TrEMBL record:
Keywords for the protein's UniProt record, in alphabetical order: DNA damage, DNA excision, DNA repair, Endonuclease, Hydrolase, Nuclease
Keyword DNA repair: yes
Gene Ontology terms, MF aspect: endonuclease activity; hydrolase activity
Gene3D superfamilies with a match to the protein in the record: Divalent-metal-dependent TIM barrel enzymes
Matches recorded under InterPro entries: UvdE, Xyl_isomerase-like_sf
Protein name in UniProt: UV DNA damage repair endonuclease UvsE
Gene source species: Candidatus Desulfobia pelagia
An annotated GO BP: response to UV
Length: 312
DNA sequence: GCATGTCAAGTTGTG
DNA sequence: CACAACTTGACATGC
């Protein structure tokens, strides 16, 4: 068989069939309790989530999946202005920290790449000071989590354009330069499907020494004149120049490529959507598909990759 | 039990 | 102008 390179696939955040769940709580609910009660509930949920993360990594390792994206609200509402908290305020924090120790060791032993994808509220190109402040706080939270689990990547989009892409990118650069080390050293920028194409982001990334995560689905939604092969080559050499393994995203549109309106993700990946220029590379491909682990395992089979179990 | 509306946050494009 | 879409689901509430 081929697969000369070491292409590996990543699972994103949650499971469809596997009984591994992450719990949540809203600020509104927390606000109906006393502070002591809030922290008790939060501690319970955080411990539950750490245990779920352990199970998630075990599942991933057993199924030959090489990467896992951790959902942002692993510690729900930690950065919330009213109900936010510090890890050390949680009753039983020692047990939680112990769990993280196990996770770090397991990750290393099994060579699983961990990443975060802070959501759309994180906008470093914003012209509003409040938005930048909130983003910095949220990114700092992700940096702390990344230290705790030994994650390698904190991946965000470039944000809005505000009628002037050049000045927006200028603000983006300035704000990236101001990030603290735990965040800056892990930050990556991903092309999106409405504003920033690979052609826009590559010069920024190359000048800052920040890797670019290449989402080929977004590139197909927002073409920029560069071919998939050209982008792939530049992205790969950027990651390699930093001594790191490239990251890509793949997904298939639920309603086919013809439908003009929004393109929600399909349950599975159509193997025809997998860029041929990725075959044989050493890289990580996060699978963004609603069938989650089932889609990753399916795609691995379709592409002739085998899980650890099956030998090879 | 099960159905349904609600969740902190930003920006853009569509109807 | 309101709302969906974005990695989307889980939780709280009311029947």
């Amino acid at each position: 068989m081929k697969n000369a390179g070491k292409l590996r696939f990543g699972l994103c955040c949650i499971f469809r069939r596997e009984p591994i769940k992450f719990r949540q709580v809203t600020a509104k609910t927390l606000l109906s309790f006393s502070r002591v009660e809030q922290l008790l509930r939060l501690a319970e949920i955080c411990l539950h989530n750490v245990n779920s993360l352990k199970k998630a990594l075990s599942f991933v390792a057993e199924n030959g999946i090489g990467a896992f994206r951790i959902l942002s609200p692993l510690f729900p509402r930690l950065t919330h202005p009213q109900v936010g908290y510090q890890l050390d305020e949680l009753p039983g924090v020692e047990i939680i920290r112990k769990g993280f120790e196990e996770i770090r060791r397991f990750r290393q032993d099994h060579d699983i790449r961990l990443s975060f994808h802070p959501d759309q509220f994180n906008v470093l190109s914003s012209n509003r000071e409040q938005v930048i402040r909130n983003t910095n706080r949220e990114l700092a939270y992700h940096g702390m989590l990344a230290d705790l689990v030994d994650a390698e990547v904190v991946n965000i989009h470039a944000g809005g354009v505000y009628g002037n892409k050049e000045s927006a990118l200028e603000r983006l650069k300035e704000n990236i330069e101001k990030l603290s080390f735990p965040v800056r050293s892990r930050l990556t920028l991903e092309n999106d499907d409405v504003s920033y194409s690979p052609k826009d982001l590559l010069p920024v990334c190359e000048s800052l020494g920040i890797p670019m995560v290449y989402d080929v689905h977004h590139h197909r939604c927002l073409p920029d004149g560069l071919s998939e092969a050209e982008v792939t080559e530049r992205v790969v050499s950027l990651w390699r120049s930093l001594g790191r393994e490239p990251c890509f995203h793949i997904s298939s549109p639920r309603n086919g490529w013809d439908s003009r309106a929004p393109k929600p993700h399909a349950d599975y990946i159509d193997p025809a959507d997998f860029p041929s220029c990725w075959t044989g590379l050493t890289a990580t491909v996060d699978v963004e598909a609603k069938a989650k682990e089932l889609a990753v395992i399916d795609l691995q089979k379709e592409l002739g990759l085998h899980s650890n179990k099956s030998g090879e």
